[in-house]
Amino acid sequence: MMKKTSTDERPYAERMAAQKPDHSTLGRGKIGVVLSNLGTPDATDYWSMRRYLSQFLSDRRVIDYSPFFWQPLLQLIILTKRPFSSGEAYRSIWNNERDESPLLTITREQTEAVAKRLEEMYGDRIVVDFAMRYGNPSTKSVIDRLLEQGCGKIVFFPLYPQYSATTTATANDEAFRALMKATWQPPMRTVPSYCDHPLYIEALAQSVERKYSELDKKPDALVVSYHGMPVRYLMQGDPYHCQCQKTTRLLRERLGFAEDEVVITFQSRFGSEEWLQPYTVEEVAKLAEEGKKNIAIMAPAFSSDCVETLEEISEEIRDSFIEAGGQEFTYIPCLNSDESHIAMMVDILKSELSGWAEPAA
User: Fold this and answer.
1) CA distance 240 to 322
2) What does the pLDDT look like over 20-54, one tens digit per residue?
3) How far apart are CA 138 and CA 132, in angstroms?
4) Three-class secondary structure of residue 359 per DSSP
């Protein structure tokens, strides 16, 4: 005997809500956008720095040594001393007015600027927020908040122009882990690297031209310094080195500089194994010794100024250049919340939102 079908023609969700008064009626019509940056400690004291560094240096994407070897070394030796030196570095650049790191301040400013532009284009349908891979606000807390606000789709935007497993991939990993625990799991798009995006190259070129226009004399060389990584990662197939080279070539061509006017280097070496070369701290000293006493330096791999730019470049790397006989050292800030940078982010997001939302006519 065939089972009698229901004659209730109401929509399924309405029928379920009628049967269960506590049934969720939260809509899923909004789209979340997450700008993801590397991270920041909550403060500069020993324990805040230790928590942050432990999370960062325990990431197997960043340090891929066996945890049976690495964790005792990290927890018992490295993290007994490094929080003091790292805390000192952060204190030298800390935003005391807001009691936070410059990276946090800048990422918030970027988010607010992008949100304003997207609201003008899409109305209130797009919800923009930012997250940190390490530290706060955590990726999971931000994604959970977007789901609570009714976001049924998410665009996740790692703010790394050049792809690396140590940056882009681990940021995506954390977002995927957050969704693994969601009962109502939304579709998510991840923004790919944009090392050759025309608006990114143009924004970099404009930042160089703007800084050069402020100088009395054109620098002898433009040092383009990227965050380093072990050569072993390159041999394993990480495309980061190639994408850094491509960004530099496109920037040089856009500026119309000769090949010997632009020098690519890699900074922030950690540990004893070989990293991508030439090392920035050594190369700037070499340039001074070769008679290039006036240089400018920029860091295109960073979307926001942070400890690696404001402290390492502006202090440690600058000191290396001056001590070797250099005279004029000019740091060109990261793109930060510059209008050209925000325009690039919005253009990329417009493409990624295609099919999910269209700008108002």
Assistant:
1) 30
2) 445 444 567 899 999 999 999 999 999 999 999 99
3) 5
4) coil
